[in-house]
Amino acid sequence: MTDLTKLTAVELAGLVADGQTSAVEVTRAHLDRIAAVDDRVNAFLHVDADGALAAARAVDERRAAGEELGPLAGVPVAVKDVLTTKGVPTTVGSKILEGWRPPYDATIVQRLRAAGTVLLGKTNMDEFAMGSSTEYSAYGPTRNPWDTDRIPGGSGGGSAAALAAYEAPLAIGSDTGGSIRQPGAVTGTVGAKPTYGGTSRYGLVAFSSSLDTPGPCARTVLDAALLHAAIGGHDPRDSTSVPQPVPDVVAAARLGATGDLTGVKLGVVTEFSGEGAEPGVAAAFRDSVDALAKLGAEIVEVSCPHFTYALPAYYLIAPSECSSNLARFDGVRFGLREGDDGNRSLEEVMSLTRDAGFGPEVKRRIMLGTYALSSGYYDAYYGQAQKVRTLITRDFTAAFERVDALISPTTPFVAFPIGARTSDPYQMYLADLYTIPTNLYGGPGISVPCGLSEGLPVGLQVMAPTMADDRMYRVAAALESAVGTFTPPAL
Ligand code: GLN
């Protein structure tokens, strides 16, 4: 019998639509897989078995009634615990929201339900999406299915690990500085950060509102494109949502899969090629550039001189926005309340609650951001960083006058051992060296598996102009057709 957990979303939806299997069977197979392996992976913070089976039964009933089903109907999906799910616990990986059951669904969750996908549960993440390894989750680290002594990337390590461990064929992540793409790269899966505003932030617990972008994670480029199409598009409830349809990412992925990139001009980012990356990562990247050239792409070098300032600028802008956004966790409105014994002042209870509820990295970001925004320092730190952001955007604009898309490795290094980078925050921040410029600019970026280094996956990043998300899918799918997909050793 076919192992349903090994199939792609496209294959699963096809089997369900043809009546060769049911959505309930598909869902059961994935719930069984979670039960069998998740004690070793810890990808899930909450599994909603009853909700998933009820949603699957509804899809089977609609099919039996002869209703037309969408392209992802009956396919299970794991959702990063940063998106609100009505009545289903949402913690953002933090103790401060432990036990909170939101009264509403995020727009993306609503759209997943409307598409007939089956929500399996909520995935582990670095607390408030701050981190690159999922070690900063208040609920224990997620482990990389390729080697359970290593990290699965972060902050969306749970979503990526769930895919690599065959616990789910599709997952949702959020990318503020790389949290979809970097976990994708180090787990051998596909992760796409859509154009900022191309996917709704309504119901996404805010970290850095000018950067936060929810997006699709999958094991193949086409699956990611189908998920992107299902969740993307204008949302009047998000004031920064782009009032335009998502470009046809599915058609672009199918076009790319033909393996022909004739007429496509790709720019290798000079500042991110070679130096800074581990030798094995640099080698896999160079081989992939050759593979893209063989598919017909024209390859040129493009210098983006300000990209090297992206990391420091990000670590002023993101903490500044975080310090403001996280002020709402005050022990009054939702989640944890500490020390409210009737004798303490409101300020004391707030302070005790925030001290007990936030972990060390979140506190560090709040302090950094508060400092960067404080009077007398605002212009020197936050203001300067905003100017750098403009320069980075200009680098992208100039590059896209010359090339259709930019490429680089997704990360400088492969999955590192658990514990290797937790004592020095800067070493952890370096994981996003190559992904952050895209967030500061607002354009789309995708990570696609491109090879192995010492038996561990390496990702290639494709960056495209804003609202040209289709271009990155075409290039990624073409590379996938040449190098194939990567399967971890059995757990
Ligand atoms: N690792 C980066 C950070 O810690 C990016 C996180 C993200 O994209 N959510 O801020």
UniProtKB/TrEMBL annotation:
It is an enzyme of class 6 (ligase). Keywords: ATP-binding, Ligase, Nucleotide-binding, Protein biosynthesis, Transferase. Residues 137-158 are annotated as: Disordered. Residues 25-471 form the Amidase domain. GO terms for cellular component: glutamyl-tRNA(Gln) amidotransferase complex. NCBIfam families: gatA (TIGR00132). Belongs to the amidase family. GatA subfamily. Heterotrimer of A, B and C subunits. This is Glutamyl-tRNA(Gln) amidotransferase subunit A.
